[in-house]
Amino acid sequence: MLSFYCSHSLAQRPTLASSLPKFRFANRPGTFSLTRSSRIFESNPKLTKNKWKISCFRHEGFSPENPKSEYVEQFLPEEVVQHDFEKSSARKRDWKSTLQEAADAVLRAVGSGWTVPWTAETILQVMLLWVAAFWFIGSWMIPFAAHMAGFSKESLTFRGQALFSLVTDVTEGLAGIAILHRCLSQFHPLPSDWFKFSLKGKWLFDVVLGCLMFPVVNRLSQFNLNLLPLMPSTPVTLSSVEQSILARDPVAMALYAIVVSVCAPVWEEIVFRGFLLPSLTKYMPVWCAILVSSVAFALAHFNVQRMLPLIFLGMVMGVVFARSRNLLPSMLLHSLWNGFVFLDLMR
Prior knowledge:
Blueprint: E1 39-42, E2 52-58, E3 70-74, H1 77-110, H2 120-148, H3 158-184, H4 204-211, H5 214-227, H6 240-247, H7 250-280, H8 286-299, H9 307-324, H10 327-346
Antiparallel strand pairs: 1-2, 2-3
Helix pairs in contact: 2-3, 2-7, 3-6, 3-7, 4-10, 5-9, 7-8, 7-9, 7-10, 8-9, 9-10
């Protein structure tokens, strides 16, 4: 079998062969097929222009009795580059499609937005009034009422301080509900999925998944404390809750358990998940409303050493609420977390 080796080079410049794989072209009318046995020759890197030389062979008159092939070298730089470009584009499309599928899955998980009949002015009004009422009642109204009655919180026993905290928390919560009712009264009747409480629905599994996030919240608490430690000059004091736990007063501990595991979850979920999160969906996607409401939830606790865990916890409760459109699951999850922290203090 006669084999030949022919070279084509621009400007008649010499080329050097490399050991890269070569391309095989089958001798079909008008078409060529690439196989793994192809060999690519590239030009001398010292030349001013890069040229690739491809060694290929044709199967003219190929038969079992005549297995040898004829080789032809051709320059095909554009085809090779185009092939690599198409592969790169395909990989990019795969990544884009994967990210799009992940985004679609998140959107399906959290659901669509709410029908919000009020504007941003009402949202801002409710939140500012709630913060002002929270501060005024806890810092001025209840202490002033106790002073008028002839006693102060510091002079009370552990049980008296626990009762004082319960009265303060209940008053703050009722004030928050009154503010919501007053500001939203002009929009009544509200859509059916607003401030919904129901035992129906498949939300128990979401609550269980939320509980599995508690170790992550705990790790974030430690990370936040390492990131923003207490100043050395800051005095370390025990709260009235911790003092009651150390004293092992069962009545005081029971009253504090009601405050942290019942009252606080109810009031906070009504404001942040029941009102703020759905209201924000008028101006942003649901996932963004979950994040913003979680940041507001963390800021309302006025503790920079707990910002990161509270933001993450707010996001978990926000996802649970958005999926169920029901305040009961997020309240239950909030109560379980507070109860977990309270039991941890009792150890």
